[in-house]
Amino acid sequence: MERDPLLRKLVSKSAEDFVKEQNIEAITEKFLGPVIGAVFLGDWKQMNAFHFCAGVNCLGNGSINADWSSTIDSLTQGFAEKIVIDKVISIEDLNRGEAYQVKCEEHLYRAERVVLSVPGAVDDIKRHADRRDGDQSAATPR
Question: What's the predicted TM-score (pTM) here?
Answer without folding.
Answer: 0.46
